[in-house]
Input
Amino acid sequence: MNSHIKMTDLPSTDLSRRSFLVGAAASGLVLGYSGMPDARAAAAPAHLEPSVWYAIAPDGLVTVTCGKADMGQHVASTMAQIVCEELGAKWSDMRVQLASNDPKFNDPVLGAQITGGSWSTMMNFDAMSRAGAAGRITLTEAAAASMGVPASELAVRDSMISHAKSKKQMSFAEIVRSGKATKTFTPDELKAIKLKTPDQYTMVGVSVPQLDIPDKTKGAAKYGIDVMLPGMVYGVVVTPPVRYGATVKSVDDSAARKVPGFIKAVTLDDKTATTTGWVVAVANTYQNARKAAEALKVTYDGGPNAKLSSESLFEEAKRLLALPDSGEFFVKNGDTAAAFGTAAKLMEAEYTTNINIHAPMEPMNATAEFQGDILHLYSGNQFATRSGAIAAGAAGIDPKYVVMHQKWLGGGFGRRLDADMMVPAVQAAKAVGKPVKVIYSRENDMTMDFSRPLTYQKVKAGLDGDGKLVALNHDVVSAWPTQRWGIPDFLTPSVDKKGPLDSFTVNGADFFYSVPNHYVRAIKNEMAHNATPSGQLRSVAPGWTFWAVESMVDEIAHAVGKDPAQYRIEMLDGRGDNAGGAQRLRNTLLAAMGLAGYGTKELAKGEGMGVACVSSQERKTASWTACVAHVAVAPSGEITVKKLTVATDVGTQVNPDGIQAQVSGAALWGLSLALYEKATLKDGGIEQTNFDSYTPLRMSQLPEVAVSVIANGEHPTGVGEPAVTVIAPAIGNAVFNAVGARVRSLPITAEAVKAAMKA
Amino acid sequence: MVTLNINGRNLSVEAANDSPLLWAIREQLQMTGTKFGCGAGLCGACTVHINGEAVRSCQTAVGDVVGKKVTTIEGLSAKGDHPLQKAWIAEQVPQCGYCQSGQIMQAASLLAKNNNPTKEEIVAHMDGNLCRCMTYSRIQKAIMRAANEMRTASNSGNERRAT
Output
């Protein structure tokens, strides 16, 4: 099981390590967890700042500090909404700001500043609720003292505390200004606060307007790329033709020196090994830096990966899979070999996915400035704890001297978990003695992505005489994106005790179907790992594991003459460890079927509906998600997606409209990955360089998307990623139902469909 | 030194005539609402208006806009309340928001000529603008909503002129 998630200790984890402070100061009321040192954090505070989740100013405005990266999921607004519910503030009084990398802003469950995994709401709901409630109690007690009435008779609503009998009332602003709001909560007191029950919610579950949106309609929101510092100069990176492993042999800057404003060419000496063979052209303006970069003549040693291609990575994957002792086991239930021996029918299939690129609209960038001993970094980043340490490594200083100034992220999708952009900014700033803003070109951004790895999976199934799935072997060969971080806590012990494995390559394969004999093996493709350092791309492993599982289950159902949806429902019987989760997934699948009218009518020739259901992202953090895809397939093999019907069980909705936006965006990402996005490696380099050759979904390719959210009062789960993972198999299954063509490689191309139609 | 007319103001900028308008606006004049996305005219994040026409500022040379009126997202409306900006809030369009200045500027050039576009006309006009968060459906709704508001405003006669 994944070691980084301990959901069972969720409410207590933060409280055991921290104490909660409420205090009044002239500047306002501040509420938060005090900065007890966290042994696991890489950086210590390098600047003085009170430890706060939120502050109430004398004017009554409540500013929530969000320790999560906001990349469009409106997580800052969501945190404010959770605080607001328990605090009793008026929504129009709420403001948000983005946290620095001070460890006091670490995630209360994860113990670090990292945003991913669709974890934020589920892991911060309790902490933000208690922070809000503590504020309400403090304000109420102060108001009671001022009014001379019992606190128990006071009502809190819309930033106002009122006493019905005496008709007295005080605003939050007045109470803060009175200076009487002082109270300290011990961890136990904080834990003992009785939170609202869902029937008392007035804010959670309401589609209040997202606080970050107005600025984003005026060009006023500040992203990393928008940072301007006095005396700042610009860096443009020159990257080698090989994705990873090249070294610079020589740099000739004679032509660059003729570019006006040129300052220096800096060859990176990256001890963190995040980048290889990069040179930064530094100049007074971006245009001049660009010209200088173009004028630099750099020669390279291509290194060990310079001949590799997507084909060679697939061949290596097949070789590894064929070895009997490859990899480590993530799941080992029963005895599949014995079950295969007695099975009435065996089936085997291979599924592949190609390299995919994050390509957020804001290209990677960072601005670095040394001020005395302190290194200031300005960027939008999803993993301040690690990225600060990488920046420190690039600077040759202790991580405690790095201050990360978080900005809005112009798209994240996992790309900004990485820290490569920090390295050129830091080393260029150090080399020229000025603040440097480094902005990647789109070509840099695409060819140097920490991509979704190319994957190769083999699934072998054993069926009994009734067509029931009794044994499944699932082997997953890929680069290991999370192992690359070098943080043991994010790895998972293998069940065969062969050492830790990267569960972010196999999550999802530990599904909720009842299959008595079930093995899942994670096999590291070392060649791919080195040649294409992989990252976490929106949904990570479930984006490929469910492609294999949900395609295979469909293939099995067809092979035994059963309706694929019904076949799934029968396996979601909730036996053993699957209790609860399986039933929620079954219900979600039924909801999607009903909403789509699955099986209720004859479809036109060449059309088909396909289903898939997933427990993404991880067993312990699943949002139960199902999709019915309705496609039309032309004789040419070309697919038109007519409609995607998605149902998802998220437990509790904080902002229903925001969830709609996230789930439909995730579903369209799934569609884009299923049909339109493919990157390839050739001669060690990514061949696609811009949006002409790497082609995410555009408006003209938009199908109808219907999202239904099931909120049944369980703990809130994540919504940013799970719907990505359900789309490709639903489309693949729909294509099969439409024209009998089974495609097992992503993206699904018209050529592949046509070829499979003939076969 | 080149003098550009941006959002009704004459501004001087130290830039070669052949350098892209985008970087002069963003980095030199520090009007950062206009975004860099691809540098190749493939994504639309850098869209501004030149004499009312939507163009990609990354593909437009500074020298070519001298004497013309450049409008950026900051100058689309005095108070950020262009019908499209209001509609973008009403429909809660932006996610990461990075492409949205370009989306709004591209849409504004459509509505300036046609305040009653069909869905097909919207798609044809907007297809060059990428949104990696995939907010396309809300963009369409917001354009329809803004068009509706603009028609209502123009129908309400002389007492209230849409400017």
